[in-house]
Design brief:
heterodimer, A: 241 residues, 6-stranded mixed beta sheet, 4-stranded antiparallel beta sheet, 33% helix, globular, B: alpha+beta, 2 domains, 10-stranded mixed beta sheet, two-stranded antiparallel sheet, elongated
Chain lengths: 241, 392
Amino acid sequence: MQNSKLIRTENLVKKFPVGKGFFTALRDINLEFDKGEFTGLVGPSGSGKTTLLNIIGALDDPSEGEAYVMNSEVSQLSHGKAAELRNQHLGFIFQTYNLLPVYNVFENVEFPLLLLRLPTKERRQMVMEALEWVGLTDKVKSKPVNLSGGERQRVAIARAMVKKPKIVLADEPTANLDAKNSHNVLKMMVDLNRELKSTFIFATHDEKVIQYLRRKITLEDGRVIDDVPMVTNGLNKGSQS
Amino acid sequence: MTVLRLAFRNVLGAGLKTWLNVAVLSLAFVVIVWVQGFYDGVNQQALDAIIDIEYAGGQFWHEEYDKFDPLTLEQSHGKISPDVQKIIDDGNAIPILTTLGAIYPHGRMISLMIKGVKTDQDIIPLPSHVLENGNPNLIPALIGTRMAEAGEIEKGDVITMRWRDANGTFDATDVEIVEIMNTIAPSIDAGQIWIPIESLREAMQMPGEATVITVRKGFDVEIGEFGQFYFMLPEKLLEDMINVMKGRDIFWMIMYVLLSSLGLLAIFDTQMLAVFRRRKEMGMLMALGMTRKEIVGTFTLEGALQGLLSVVVAFAWGAPICYWTMTTGFRFGNLKEGGGFAIPTVVYPEYSPQLVFGTIFILMFFITLVSFLPVRRVVKLKPTDALRGRWS
């Protein structure tokens, strides 16, 4: 079924086996996301934020219900097709950065483009552009181990954004950063959201992140208990098209 | 191509870990080739020595003769046919008469084979000319160092020798040991005594007879029957020995497998550890859009590339060592015995292309396999579990 919404979930349920029973991480989630959103999934630990993010990112399947990402039903995708969806349209930003330790900054950012099999020249241009967005053009040769936490997260953002994905999924992106670095990283993401019109979805319970959101979805015990537009106190005035 | 590029980057990026693997693998490569080359060298030299010393250009055997059954010796003698005699008369072959007998050094009886050989022959490198020396009233005899050690016999000793003649009658005489020869071939030494063929023919009452006739190296004889004798080329004569050597190959095969296993264990261990340690990385690769096939391919190729790198490194430091040992050989002092085979005092290892490339092929195959085995678990791994560092 074609739909204008970029992401849509219908009666989404996710259960995990625990002992002889199940733990229900998500219950009846019905959500829609448009292009260019800057949205946060907010809630305490265990509320289902990361699980929902994983299903949207085609990293996990729902137990019941459907999740449509760019009109593809996630649970129906083969491993290859799911990989293709992630490769072409999704960017991930993780709490622990997950950079490849043997690669330098340039190579880490270049990695998604290698998987897209882009020509060398084009890759180089795109990597340098992404490193400019995050202000790391002077660190191209550095290995992740030689970077600060803030710099590593900026590399992770550059890697997620380098292919200009339609959707960026960020799981607690500021959890390991101090306040100053958190604000820098968030400002950077706001700018990229404006410039590239990518949809950003955060899983977070960090107040600093919440200040930047334009839509806040609150989860509790796997249920959506609140879904409201945000007054962004001037930090993120919006770019939704 | 992307997978190859990534595997190459990972191998280079892993730095010390890669070089440690490469060091262990290259050591395994060189040791395997070196040990096997040494063994091949020993075998080849043993075969060459037997051809040079015993079989020369081939042998006529009496129809009853069986080299490995001494009980056939009583019947295995006969008159030489005229066409074979002509080869002998032309100096291209020598007759050897063999019988069972005994000697009595220091009052002990030692059973042995008495062999009669022409004293003026130059077809086999047996110092038979010494049989023209010694006391003219005694039969001159030549023995090897092994026989001398077994009987505590020295040059110049006079010992009693006993035999049965053509009529089955026991007879005995004294012989003088005119020389003790040092030979690498036990087959002309251990349990044998050489005397002039005419003396043995007379003692045995077998004029003009022989047991085997050895042909000069390079002299062509048509394979087939010649009266009571039939001719065989050295390759045919060595068949039994080659079969016995193949039996010994099992030991070397075990060595080969053990050495290979050591190298493979190193890479298997490393791959297992790497896969365990890099679960999160694999999850990340999946999140970035790599397919499971690509991930398995990358990790498998990493192992294969390390194997390839170790071949290059092994060649760089192993080739000069192998070349040096191949040209200078290994000196083994007085070690001469090897399960009844000739072991030369200097062994020259042989590194055939089959050995080198066969070892490379076998090891590369198994390195790739043991690189693949731990990674295939990734195929079943859920991306979310991998990202959390879980196995399932």
